[in-house]
């Protein structure tokens, strides 16, 4: 139930409101993408915005992702702040060249004379029963690319604030939205609150026995795992990483030094996923505090399978608990 | 702001480019038509339908059965048996016309909507459902019917088609003059796909190597919510002119014309005369997929107008008017459709879920040690639960 | 195997497409030319050069100085002062014609070879050398002269240009009728680049939004070792027809014609009449870059034939024949070129190497903590060596 | 000096000979790419092959990487074995979509009914004084992609054998060639020898104090580091990983369990590079043997800088030794 001055919103609504706010605040903010106009996007995240801000600011693009990102680069060079929607995670790859060779590098190439204030919104992750290419988790590839920043929201309130902060950032931001959560849980938004800075992680549940790191769709699973573990007398600390590049590791190190155990969970498959980097850094920084290796929980190292077995492919509460147990028993 | 002023700048021709779209025109004078919406056969100077009424009876049956596959699958999705379905309602003539013009040795690269072409190529429609049900990602063997797997990334398959056609050239099965040997490739794609880099690159490669490929674009006027005007401001078939090969616009709701034009284009390819772009001018009468809501972006008037051009109705009218078919024929086809629908319904529900451990298969031609370890670990993990219950 | 048979298939037009390339033709009848290789001015029905001889004197000077930049930089590379250099030898008229038709408010998106356009836009040629010397990746500020950074990934900049042009539309500086206000964008690219998906997508976006952009393709007949025939089998300017905007082929070795055509195309854009493709038909008289060896893939005959069409020689002939310039003019330009060469030589050698720690700057608008830590760690590491010696 | 039955070759020559051999052995092998024909490629790796095998088998492609890989997919589906040359590492990105969504997934999608025996050759790495995009190390992105195999050769003899083995593989292989080594050192090739299997790593120098892992261009630096360390009485074991996906970790674990110290070196920047995965796996498998965290040596997490400072950007012998020292002193 919303209390006074707050409203209860879904993630989809939070993002929609955040986009609207950003467009109101700055006339240079543009939305671009396939079907973002009249349709409001296939997930309705841009619902109503073309009607209110016009076709020049909410731009339905031809069906070509490289073209969308490439023209957004040009608009950014002209002083605009384009917010690009990629329709599904698996369709970002035609734009990959523009993203890693242009968007990511233009500030560096120009020694800071050019800015690239672009946000690339990507609904990501699985669990929605979709066909191939609609459930990917491409974050590691972008986090591996210097010049890009990468964030993932996990809840409606963060969605509202983080999208505005990403748009306000002068750096290009890959903005990952857990599509499975778009219309799932609601939360209370207080628009008068002051959000934390964008590039920070956050302890979302305090604990003492082990640290569970998650972002995007896995935060919910991690919290559920902590809840379940509590009934067995295990106290898990859960950190919502929120930012994947740069990583905000200080709260992570602090936590792991206390607990001695760490588990990283993500929907992306394990091999060379975010977990590899996070585990490596924790090991480098907390070597003598670790009572077990940092364990990684993710999808298996196969292509995304047919949706009827996606829940086997994706990590879940049980796989997180299993890893926590393996860590505690190591 | 993006309006186009008229006038003429010397050397550049007229400034007002032709803006072409569903709301303005009915396909224009370029449209090749051999059977009117009223079911009357008409002549065209360049293309003619050279098969008899038997073939038309067959086309009718194909279209009715294809439509039944479509409505059945749509219903299965509504009942939760499929995760999603890409409807072809309204595009039956385009697909049957194209599909029936193929020889067995011709190879098809489809999108995700080519159910009618699959039908013509002999793919069991039940096999098409697995992908949409989420039990596989395309279960048929492309080698069985020379019908490739559905491709979801827009446009990717047009390059595969071009490469395959380059393979045909290397295999010496182009331009030999032997009708059982000479082969071609058909690449299906949509109006929206025409904007993808890959599709335009496939035009470049096909032209450069003179590859035996027919680019078959079903311009159904929409790419989800985006009208054709967003992708091109001139008739789409003219895109080919920029790449140096012929383009032609055919009435995609006219199965005779689509057959005649595609067949001629395929023959050009088989003969070694290179690529052709066929734009089948049609209309997506249903939603983009079962999760789409077209009322948000298009006028019902449009749909009503296109209903008058229904691809099946016009053939039926022709068959009736000319006494080619009687009630019993139509009843038989109806019965066959009902039987097919029943088979699909039952068959779909019986499609088994894949085994979880199957996800480790076929990532590589042989399972790597890494994957063997993951599979075995997961198997043990799953067993630990079985023990627990 | 990839030969093209002749003949005609009804409805598809002639089968034998026009194969067009450097060895066959001299640009064909479509070529807009206003100054012959012999230095004679000729008329064209659509385009005329409307500036006086003063302007031609200026063009001559521009071309000579641009060529000097080029030969100087090539020599600097030979002496190890540059890592590589992309020569423009032979393309001076194309670049000066285009560059001089730009207004200050027009924005340029160059490739890596647009030294002549940079010159016209007022970029110090010394600034161009840094990238090739390896001390920076483009040191000029695009805002200073409306001249973007060199782009090395083939074709990428054509989309940036189109987006920038969409920005001009949104800024209300298109089609207002105010000559000091209305602006356009020019996107440079090569014949090889025309095959990239990005370039074709930029045509689609520009057409769809009617963006004020001129696509200026220098068809220098080669993409490294690949002849133009590999990229297109019809004249390249005709590519635009497939996208619904005008294309024109101009003699890229004729500075008057290139100026006239590009200026008209830019004016169309500024007036809100949308995109144009200008194909400047020219020849890369040098190597692709200083690391390339063109003798491996092309005939010296070709080069000899093109030398007769030298872009500078024909202007000189015109100026001399018509008594527009005397010896002292040519001597002055020569002197100016020598001075420029000297300045470049000395300036290049004096270009400072970047500080190693500068690599951490400008990755982001503010250095992240991660990078601060890496930079500080590396600084300490470097210092540890200094201590050691 | 070559002994009888052997010849002294560069890496470029080894690759050229290997390609020739593969084409002789199997008429289905085709080469495709920009300038691979008459020119023999900008690095001359395909020198002379078009002349001998004709334009149908050594195919100069239009300038479009997505088109090259996409048509190669079609040729593979028709039964050919295309070997694609990407001219420089930085130009693989226009083909990224075809590689990760098609090449990598077609076997899986078709449940093994379709094979994708394609080799994508990429000259990679820096140190050649080139301009932007010509010195990249994109391997982690491909190794992160299930369905692809990724290998890197480091010397002329491996070049000769590995390219043939990659072509013979029924899986798609990203084949990384250290361009800086193409025309550098020579080695003796004995064509009658039997090569080790492709997807294996190899101990190239035995040692006892610490294990240094490298691949491609860094193998030479790692060996030089070991040489230098030896003069200071430190004994380094050097492993040439050779295969990056799958990783062949058994020899690595065996070594690290003996030495207790591991350093991974690559030219790619550190964040989410191969080192992250390798360090994580070693820590998971050798936790109690490790006397220090696995240390990672790589480029800094910035875009590739102007070439005048690339030797500062890239790791080298000294940075490897520095990491070894830090590990030993941990
Ligand atoms: C590369 C890529 N981008 C986006 C999508 C999402 N998508 C699926 S279908 C579609 C519209 C396709 O339109 P069109 O090509 O006209 O084919 P139609 O669906 O009308 O048959 C879009 C945008 C996709 N599948 N692939
Ligand atoms: C995406 C990409 N692929 C390959 C290259 C390597 N390359 C640099 S220049 C060039 C040829 C370009 O030819 P063209 O477009 O005709 O321009 P020109 O160099 O002739 O001016 C190639 C293949 C590149 N820079 N970018
Ligand atoms: Mg469509
Ligand atoms: Mg060229």
List keywords for this structure.
heterotetramer, A: 330 residues, alpha/beta, Rossmann fold, 2 domains, seven-stranded mixed sheet, five-stranded mixed sheet, 12 helices, 20% strand, globular, B: 389 residues, five-stranded parallel sheet, two-stranded antiparallel ribbon, 9 strands, 9% strand, disordered N terminus, binds thiamine diphosphate, binds magnesium ion
State the gist of this model.
The complex is a heterotetramer, with two copies of chain A (330 residues) and two copies of chain B (389 residues). Chain A is α/β, with parallel strands linked by helices and 330 residues long.
Describe what you observe in this structure.
The complex is a heterotetramer, with two copies of chain A (330 residues) and two copies of chain B (389 residues). Chain A is 35% helix and 20% strand. Chain A is built from twelve helices and 14 strands. In chain A, the strands form three sheets. Chain A has a seven-stranded mixed β-sheet with strand order 3-2-4-5-7-6-12, with helices on both faces. The longest helix of chain A is centred in the first third of the chain and has 15 residues, at 11-25. The N and C termini of chain A lie far apart (43 Å). With 389 residues, chain B is α/β, with parallel strands linked by helices. Chain B has two domains: 16-349, Thiamin diphosphate (ThDP)-binding fold, Pyr/PP domains (Rossmann fold), CATH 3.40.50.970; 355-389. Helix content of chain B is 42%, strand content 9%. Chain B contains twelve helices and nine strands. Residues 1-6 and 15-24 of chain B have low confidence and may be disordered. Chains B and C meet through helix 7 and helix 8 of B and helix 7 and helix 8 of C. The complex binds thiamine diphosphate (2 copies) and magnesium ion (2 copies). One thiamine diphosphate (TPP) sits between chains C (113, 152-154, 190-193, 220, 222-224, 284, 288) and D (34, 63, 65, 87, 91, 94).
């Amino acid at each position: 139930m919303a209390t006074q001055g707050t409203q209860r919103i879904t993630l989809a609504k939070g993002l929609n409101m955040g986009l609207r706010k950003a467009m109101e605040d700055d006339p240079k903010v543009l939305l671009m993408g396939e079907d973002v106009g009249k349709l409001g996007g296939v997930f309705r995240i841009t619902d109503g915005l073309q009607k209110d801000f016009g076709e020049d600011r909410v731009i339905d693009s031809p069906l070509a992702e490289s073209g969308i990102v490439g023209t957004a680069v040009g608009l950014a060079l002209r002083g605009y702040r384009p917010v690009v929607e990629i329709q599904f995670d698996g369709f970002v790859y035609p734009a990959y060249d523009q993203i890693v060779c242009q968007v990511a590098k233009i500030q560096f190439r120009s020694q800071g004379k050019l800015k690239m204030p672009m946000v690339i919104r990507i609904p990501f992750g699985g669990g929605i029963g979709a066909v191939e290419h609609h459930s990917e988790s491409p974050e590691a590839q972008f986090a591996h690319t210097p010049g890009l920043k990468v964030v993932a929201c996990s809840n409606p309130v963060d969605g509202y604030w983080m999208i505005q902060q990403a748009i306000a950032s002068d750096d290009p931001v890959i903005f990952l939205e857990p599509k499975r959560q778009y219309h799932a849980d609601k939360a209370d938004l207080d628009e008068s609150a002051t959000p934390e800075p964008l590039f920070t992680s956050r302890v979302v549940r305090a604990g003492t026995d082990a640290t569970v790191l998650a972002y995007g769709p896995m935060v919910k699973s991690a919290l559920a795992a902590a809840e379940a573990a509590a009934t067995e007398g295990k106290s898990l600390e859960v950190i919502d990483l929120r930012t994947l590049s740069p990583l905000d590791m200080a709260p992570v190190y602090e936590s792991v030094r206390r607990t001695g155990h760490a588990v990283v969970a993500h929907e992306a498959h394990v091999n060379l996923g975010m977990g590899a980097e996070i585990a490596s850094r924790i090991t480098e920084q907390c070597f003598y505090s670790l009572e077990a290796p940092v364990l990684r929980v993710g999808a298996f190292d196969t292509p995304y399978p047919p949706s009827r077995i996606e829940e086997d492919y994706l990590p879940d509460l049980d796989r997180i608990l299993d890893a926590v147990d393996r860590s505690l028993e190591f | 702001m993006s309006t186009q002023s008229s006038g003429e700048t010397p050397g550049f021709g007229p400034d007002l480019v032709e803006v072409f779209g569903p709301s303005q025109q009915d396909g224009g004078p370029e449209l090749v038509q051999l059977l009117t919406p009223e079911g009357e056969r008409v002549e065209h100077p360049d293309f003619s339908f050279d098969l008899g009424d038997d073939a038309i009876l067959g086309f009718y049956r194909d279209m009715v059965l294809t439509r039944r596959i479509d409505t059945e699958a749509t219903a299965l999705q509504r009942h939760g048996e499929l995760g999603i379905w890409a409807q072809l309602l309204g595009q039956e003539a385009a697909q049957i016309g194209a599909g029936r013009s193929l020889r067995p040795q011709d190879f098809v690269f489809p999108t995700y909507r080519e159910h009618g072409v699959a039908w013509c190529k002999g793919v069991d429609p039940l096999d098409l459902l697995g992908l949409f049900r989420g039990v596989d990602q395309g279960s048929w063997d492309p080698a069985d019917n020379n019908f490739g797997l559905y491709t979801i990334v827009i446009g990717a398959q047009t390059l595969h088609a071009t490469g395959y056609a380059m393979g045909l050239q290397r295999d010496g099965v182009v331009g030999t003059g032997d009708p059982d040997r000479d082969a071609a490739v058909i690449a299906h794609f949509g109006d929206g796909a025409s904007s993808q880099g890959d599709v335009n690159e496939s035009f470049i490669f096909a032209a450069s190597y003179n590859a035996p490929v027919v680019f078959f674009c079903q311009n159904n006027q929409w790419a989800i919510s985006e009208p054709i005007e967003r992708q091109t401001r001139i008739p789409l078939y003219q895109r080919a002119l920029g790449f140096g090969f012929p383009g032609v616009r055919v009435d995609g709701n006219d199965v005779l014309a689509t057959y005649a034009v595609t067949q001629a284009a395929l023959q050009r390819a088989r003969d070694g005369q290179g690529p052709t772009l066929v734009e089948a001018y049609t209309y997506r009468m249903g939603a983009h997929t079962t999760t789409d809501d077209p009322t948000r972006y298009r006028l019902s008037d449009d749909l009503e107008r296109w209903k008058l051009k229904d691809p099946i109705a016009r053939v039926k009218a022709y068959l009736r008017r000319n006494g080619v078919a009687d009630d019993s024929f139509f009843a038989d086809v109806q019965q066959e459709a009902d039987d097919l629908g029943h088979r699909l319904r039952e068959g779909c529900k019986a499609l088994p879920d894949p085994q979880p451990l199957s996800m480790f298969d076929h990532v590589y031609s042989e399972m790597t040690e890494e994957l063997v370890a993951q599979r075995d670990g997961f198997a043990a993990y799953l067993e630990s639960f079985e023990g627990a219950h």
